[in-house]
Design a protein that fits this description.
The protein is an alpha/beta fold. The chain is built from 9 helices and 17 strands. It has one domain: Acetylglutamate kinase-like (Carbamate kinase).
Length: 301
């Protein structure tokens, strides 16, 4: 029986807001591609999603005269990052004699125009800001765990408009790259779809995608080996498995930063609550297959 996995990776896998090192980016990307090959060779259909916070922020900064709206830059980064992933994977697939093709799907995601997020921007985009920039720009800015960053509206995803296309392409055994940057935020006005300036959280959208596709597994990769309490402290504790109730309690107690791990935890909880049979894991890039086998990362039970 064919198994489908939604594999979510962060935009920082290609461009970190704290480390511009091309070598580091290349190493992480190599681990991501290793994951994809491992999953394919184990019989999985792979659907990839990715973040775009650093990239869309950089493009916005270049567009000083605001020629394009934020939703258009989200669309641009979907193609840009998808192209980068496609180029890198194609080369490795050729070396490994993999038959799969790779398809990038610019993906629209429906949001509610009345979502409270539009009045309370919280989604970090772009690089860490210097004090000089903070003083000059007229942006919403928040302090993240890495430093001050621009924040924008992040409405909840309601529906993946291009779901049928994604499903059809995956059924053709192609590696499908979609929902980049959480998807292009879109509202419906009568019979028309209209883009709206915002950035949807990639992990929330990835969870919705996994559920909408009735996927067998949902993997979030991040720069941590798994879910830990007291992260970065002497008494840090890593958890190979967690129940829904345990993870919810940790979230309620403020264990996870809002601009970092909290959205990932909420997305894992949403997926597992809605689909008890779905394998739901969080791990570092390079350990996806081992995480699905319970040997790495954190598995939600």
């Amino acid at each position: 029986m064919v198994k489908t996995v939604v594999y979510a990776l962060g935009g920082n896998a290609l461009s970190s807001p704290t480390s511009p090192s091309k070598e580091t980016e290349s190493e992480v990307l190599a681990r991501v591609i290793s994951d994809i090959v491992d999953l394919l060779e184990s019989g999985w259909h792979v659907i990839m999603t990715h973040g775009n916070g650093p990239q869309v922020g950089h493009l916005l900064a270049l567009d000083t005269e605001s020629h394009h709206e934020l939703d258009e830059w989200v669309a641009a980064t979907q193609s840009m990052i998808g192209y980068q992933l496609m180029q890198s994977m194609s080369s490795i697939f050729a070396l490994r004699n993999r038959p799969e093709r790779i398809v990038v799907v610019p993906t629209r995601v429906l949001v509610d125009v009345n979502d409270i997020a539009f009045s309370t921007p919280t989604k970090p985009i772009g690089p860490i800001l210097t004090s000089d920039i903070v003083m000059k720009v007229d942006w919403d800015i928040a302090e993240t765990i890495h430093g001050p960053r621009r924040v924008v509206a992040s409405p909840q995803p309601k529906e993946i408009i291009d779901l049928d296309a994604i499903r059809h392409i995956s059924d053709l055994h192609a590696v499908t790259i979609c929902c980049g940057g959480g998807g292009i935020p879109t509202v419906r006005e009568k019979n028309n779809f209209i883009g709206i300036p915002a950035v949807i959280d990639k992990d929330h959208c990835s969870s919705l995608l996994a559920l909408s596709l009735d996927a067998d597994a949902f993997i979030i990769t991040t720069a941590a080996k798994g879910i830990a309490t007291n992260f970065g402290k002497e008494n840090e504790t890593f958890h190979p498995t967690l129940s829904i109730n345990q993870l919810q309690s940790m979230l309620d107690e403020g264990e996870f930063p809002q601009g970092s791990m909290a959205p990932k935890v909420k997305s894992l909880l949403s997926a597992k609550r809605s689909s008890a049979n779905m394998k739901v894991v969080l791990c570092e890039p390079g350990f996806a297959l081992s995480a699905l086998r319970g040997k790495e990362g954190t598995t939600l039970v």
